[in-house]
Hints:
Elements: H1 15-18, H2 26-44, E1 46-47, H3 49-53, H4 55-64, E2 71-74, H5 81-86, H6 124-138, E3 144-149, H7 156-168, E4 172-178, H8 192-203, H9 205-218, H10 222-243, H11 247-251, E5 255-261, H12 265-275, E6 281-287, H13 295-299, E7 306-307, H14 326-340, E8 344-348, H15 352-355, H16 358-363, E9 368-370, H17 375-387, E10 391-395, H18 398-401, H19 405-413, E11 420-423, H20 441-446, E12 452-454, H21 459-472, E13 477-480, E14 504-507, E15 512-516, H22 520-533, E16 538-542, E17 545-547, H23 551-560, E18 563-571, H24 576-586, E19 593-599, H25 609-615, H26 620-633
Parallel strand pairs: 2-3, 3-4, 4-6, 5-6, 8-9, 8-10, 10-11, 11-13, 12-13, 15-16, 15-18, 18-19
Antiparallel strand pairs: 1-7, 12-17, 14-16
Helix pairs in contact: 2-4, 4-12, 6-7, 9-10, 14-21, 17-19, 22-26
Amino acid sequence: MDQSQFKFFNNINTPEDLRKVDIKDLRTVCNEVREFLVDAVSKTGGHLGAGLGTVELAVALHYAFNTPTDKLVWDVGHQAYPHKLLTGRKDLFHGLRQLNGISGFLRRDESEYDVFGAGHASTAVSAALGIAAARDFKGENFKVVAVVGDGSLTGGMAYEGMNNAGLLKKDMIVVLNDNQMVSLSSYSPQTWSLQNYFNEVLTHPTYNMLKANVWDLTGKLDTFGDRLREAVQKVEKGVKAVVTPGMLFEALGFRYLGPFNGHNVVKMVEVFQHVKDLHGPILIHAVTKKGKGYAPAEKEITRLHGVTPFDKVTGTMPKSSAPPAYTTLFGKALVEICKANPTVVGVTAAMADGTGLTILQKEMPERYFDVGIAEQHAVTFAAGMATEGYIPVTAIYSTFLQRAYDQIIHDTALQNLHVVFVMDRGGLVGADGPTHHGVFDLSYLRCIPRMVVMAPKDEQELRDMLYTAVEYKKGPIALRYPRGNALGVPVREKFQTIEIGKAETVRNGKDVALLAIGNMTPNTLKAADQLSKEGIEAEVVNMRFVKPLDEELVKSIAERFESIITVEDNVVQGGFGSAVLESLAKNGLTHVSLKIHGVPDQFIEQGTPAELHNIYKLDAPGIAEITKEFLSSKHGKSAFELIST
């Protein structure tokens, strides 16, 4: 792209530069930001549609408020790409979501303008309220603004924050970015003229000064003044109830203003400048369009929400000849199971496409439930269905299921309810980085009583494990699989049940035993082939189950091998390797030298799965290298002295 054509954007490296532009030229600035954004994301991939919808909001907010002194808290990173471009990172956008590049989400350690990190939704109001409370404790004077997407308002945490904000009466502003993906209001185009007029009155300093003066005057009129105040309040609330959809927010203690056209950048600047001098919690409702200004993204909102590199002229992505994604294979298998079993339903939390449940939605919509960005509710909703004999297959990203941990324990496992948890994006997922790596699930689920935890090595085992989970019926059961394409293994038409807690030996050896879980099994098999060429014969076991562990097989291996290595793409603390270690200790098998190989005790940055597997030695060459180092280092050392991470 020839950036020399940009009249303003080339000279905007900070919000201070932006504020030097005349307000009448902000529309041109927005057009240039949008053009740059489409071009950049077409090369790197990323979240496209949401950011295109917030260009004017980002420009208006940084123009009207004195950032970074005034604090902008963005909910999720999807909508914050324009914010990043305006805050000194446009020259780094070529590395967006790449190894060692800038994050696709908000990072406090990336920029002073990223006030609060966000990779999940519904957190901005709570964070902004905390910042406002701290500001008041310190006696400082700055504005706090939370920008919340309408989808985030399907999450209960947003309302918890708003309820508390309404009670505390702190000075803060919430900007509701309503891109009409969720139905929040019933207004129609015919009401726009009236609402524009009404909102100009509500936000204008003269109106608010007059209101304050009326309040002061009536406060001096004793009982009659109180009755007059009450009457004025009723008139104002009645008018708002007629012409705005904001009574819910008013009931939560916010002063509601809107809806406004969020793409009228000049108007939004005026609104923000007017409300800066108002006090208490304020909610500004801005209506935007996802994908705004880029025809393909406006037309195909879901497909161009998150993208791989694409042709920016057509909006199309190159076709792949790779095997289908695990996500697609899961979605198709679930439909097959639902057709055969009328008690099975699918549940997801605003990630129908990402978990493959769109396939069920299209084929059997009556058996499909999307509860919004509300993982806690999703799990308890599923548990409720389970009490009535239904089998809810609850498909949630591994990293998002963390948000419902209490519900997994108290509402599901404690009551021993048959809920099937299917965790997409298990392991190191790639460009979304530390907020999205599903590297904790084996640990956080394994410690829950009654929970079964398993992971397939390939697409056939995924299908069979899903079928096994549905047929289990003895309590909660979970399976996790990685992001990306499957291996291309031929798939049987008929499902088979896998015996719970039983592993399988997939390669015989005599020098060392490699115990792998899930998608680490194929990498471990390749590593064994490499080791064989160097004279080391490794036995490889596809463990399948983290809980219950196949202790009988582990004991058998410990009796035949002095050296065992466990391999997992989960954190080493409390995961699969820890389960093997506990089993050895329980059975007094302390003569064995064990190495636990997995994700180290740190948050892992972004990069493709292949890059990250290479860095952390979870690919075939890395596993082979770890094995050789372990075998050469253990001579003369006692059993558990060599346990390492």
